[in-house]
Write a structure and sequence with these properties.
The structure holds two protein chains of two kinds.
Chain A: E1 5-10, H1 13-17, H2 20-33, E2 39-44, E3 56-59, E4 63-65, H3 73-80, H4 95-106
Parallel strand pairs in A: 1-2
Antiparallel strand pairs in A: 1-3, 3-4
Helix pairs in contact in A: 2-3
Chain B: H1 17-22, H2 27-35, H3 38-48, H4 60-69, E1 76-81, H5 90-97, H6 99-113, E2 117-123, H7 127-142, E3 158-164, H8 173-180, E4 204-208, H9 209-221, H10 223-227, E5 237-242, E6 250-255, H11 260-267, E7 277-281, E8 290-291, H12 301-307, E9 315-320, H13 325-339, H14 345-362, H15 373-381, H16 389-403, H17 405-414
Parallel strand pairs in B: 1-2, 1-4, 2-3, 5-9
Antiparallel strand pairs in B: 5-6, 7-8, 7-9
Helix pairs in contact in B: 2-6, 2-9, 3-4, 3-6, 5-6, 5-7, 6-9, 13-14, 13-16, 14-15, 14-16, 15-16, 16-17
The chains are: A alpha+beta, B alpha/beta.
The structure holds flavin mononucleotide and FE2/S2 (inorganic) cluster.
């Protein structure tokens, strides 16, 4: 699976309540339209950051996008296609917390 | 006599009112009602050092006192016979065979805290226990032990039998209160605690069936007598449940402080096929596994804590040598993932993460780094959520990884259980 990228969308209560299903669908559709094939969009049980829902994490690049809105999908797609990371959605989550989740992902839990 | 709850000669028949009276039944109630001395119940229970038998071992005297002190026009008592802990049947045995002991205990609690209405919250699958309690309630009312003007006094107490739903969380005290109010079994945010604002917002004492069954005996015989059983820190007895893995399954009442080995070998006759024990889950699915080196640990609260687990509600599960501890951990993780009520995101996160981690390890997918994630997930979620299910779910999983890491490493390396 070397080189494979993952976009993980939280599907716990708060994230779903704030539209993570719709975000996931929009991102999948956007990736299809742009013909991107090396990214797998997957649901994730929970990132434990419900206060900043909905949450999206890119693995293994360690980008965490929090409180994502439908209007942010285009910028995220641009990032996935080689554009800059979406700074305005980053750094909302406590760094220790981020590290905890990144380690879970690095250990292979997704 | 070396028991508090069960009669000296135990039988599986229902104890009649006459038989119960023959061992001092309802004498405590008569004495307290006549003397108009409800405070004596609290004093005696505090002096006895009784702790709750529902799992958390909270001092019962403190709970009685807090409910008694709460100012309100109406108060309630709830006897918790939800008993949804897999493997536990001690409350069922008490209710089925010794219904008058329960009725007197609940009534004394009501008198002590100033409650006029109470509920027997009984697992809905316990038909025989319900029938036994219902018949005993009629008998008791006929003798003025229950109802209006108990034994000619000014104290009236109305008791109702309630069929409790069976999801695991429905036994949590505030979830039980929700159910009694006609709602779904979802734990409440705390504070306020039930002793402050419980059923319909009124001060409410929620205690386990076995806890309440101790009270008539404590009031009648006194705290010093009660302290003749058990240890200074953990006075009294506790009923321990042994399941089908031993030669003589059953509910055994033993003084606290009895060595674990005596329960397993002396009472239970050891494992059925003479196998050796690999691990012990001393207090039900929500407690931590102990390795076999702990077989001489005394069954008391402090000794169990020092050994790394708790007595919980006294359901003893024994894992024979040859069983894979990853499978055991996964079984419990699956139970908690299914039983988490879903109201708290942190609880869903923890229980589903444990389950996913264990499944991946089971199939040998991932690196040994996975084994270090359990503690982090538990630490992240510790103290969160409305009820203690989060802590309960962590105990068996973390302890299995800690004590039996080899089983997990074998799965990671080979994707199979270690050879028995
Ligand atoms: C998830 C969960 C399930 C519980 N189930 C029961 C139960 O079935 N019976 C019970 O007596 N206590 C149960 N408890 C404990 C109760 O919340 C409460 O502490 C207990 O009934 C108080 O009685 P005690 O002080 O006499 O132990 C449960 C707690 C939790 C968190
Ligand atoms: S509900 Fe999404 S981070 Fe928990």
């Amino acid at each position: 699976m070397e080189g494979r990228r993952y976009l993980l969308v939280c599907r716990n209560i708060d994230c779903r309540g704030r539209g993570s299903d719709e975000l996931m669908a929009a991102i999948k559709k956007g990736l299809d339209e742009r013909g991107v094939e090396d990214i797998e969009v997957k649901e994730y049980m929970c990132f434990g950051a419900c206060h900043e829902a909905p949450n999206i994490v890119l693995h293994p690049s360690r980008h965490w996008y929090a409180a994502v809105k439908p209007g942010d999908v285009k910028a995220i797609l641009d990032h996935l296609c080689g554009g800059p990371a979406v700074e305005r959605l980053m750094n909302k989550i406590d760094p220790t917390h981020r590290e905890f989740i990144f380690q879970l992902l690095d250990a292979g839990l997704f | 006599m070396d028991t508090i709850l069960f009669p000296a000669r135990q039988s599986t028949a229902k104890e009649s009112l006459a038989a119960y009276r023959g061992r001092g039944g309802y004498e405590a109630l008569s004495a307290i009602v006549d003397a108009q001395a409800p405070a004596r119940v609290i004093e005696e229970v505090q002096a006895a050092g009784l702790r709750g038998r529902g799992g958390a071992a909270f001092p019962t005297g403190t709970k009685l006192e807090l409910t008694a002190k709460a100012q309100a026009e109406q108060k309630f008592v709830v006897a918790n016979g939800g008993e949804d802990e897999p493997g536990s049947f001690k409350d069922r045995i008490l209710m089925e065979h010794h219904p008058h002991l329960i009725l007197e205990g609940v009534t004394l609690c009501a008198l002590a805290v100033g409650a006029t209405k109470g509920y027997l919250y009984v697992n809905r699958t316990y038909a025989a226990a319900q029938a036994s309690l219902a018949a005993a309630m009629q008998e008791a009312a006929g003798k003025a032990y229950l109802g209006r003007g108990i034994l000619g006094s000014a104290f009236s107490f109305e008791l109702e039998l309630f069929r409790a739903p069976t999801p695991y969380v429905a036994g949590e005290d505030t979830a039980a209160l929700e159910v009694l109010e006609g709602k779904d079994p979802v734990p409440r945010e705390k504070p306020p605690y039930p002793v402050q604002a419980g059923l319909f917002g009124k001060p409410t004492l929620v205690s386990n069936i076995e806890t309440m069954a101790n009270i008539p005996r404590i009031v009648l015989r006194g705290a010093a007598w009660f302290r003749g059983f058990g240890t200074a820190q953990s006075p009294g007895t506790m009923i321990f449940c042994l399941g089908e893995e031993v030669r003589r399954p059953g509910a055994y009442e033993l003084p606290l402080g009895t060595p674990l080995r005596q329960l397993i070998d002396g009472c239970g006759g050891g494992l059925r096929d003479g196998k050796a024990i690999k691990a012990i889950l001393p207090g039900g699915p929500s407690t931590a596994f102990l390795p076999a080196t702990c077989l001489d640990t005394p069954l008391d609260h402090q000794a169990m804590r020092d050994a790394g687990s708790i007595l919980g509600c006294g359901v003893m599960e024994l894992i024979p040598v040859g069983r894979c501890m990853l499978e055991e951990a996964l079984k419990h993780a699956g139970f908690f993932a299914a039983e988490s009520c879903g109201a708290c995101p942190a609880c869903r996160m923890e229980t589903s993460t444990f389950q996913t981690l264990l499944r991946q390890i089971k199939e040998g997918k991932g690196t040994p780094m996975l084994l270090d994630q359990f503690d982090k997930v538990a630490a992240f979620n510790r103290g969160k959520g409305r009820c203690s299910l989060i802590a309960m779910a962590a105990a068996p999983v973390l302890s299995a990884v800690r004590h039996f890491r080899g089983d997990f490493e074998h799965h990671l390396a080979h994707g199979t259980c270690p050879p028995g």
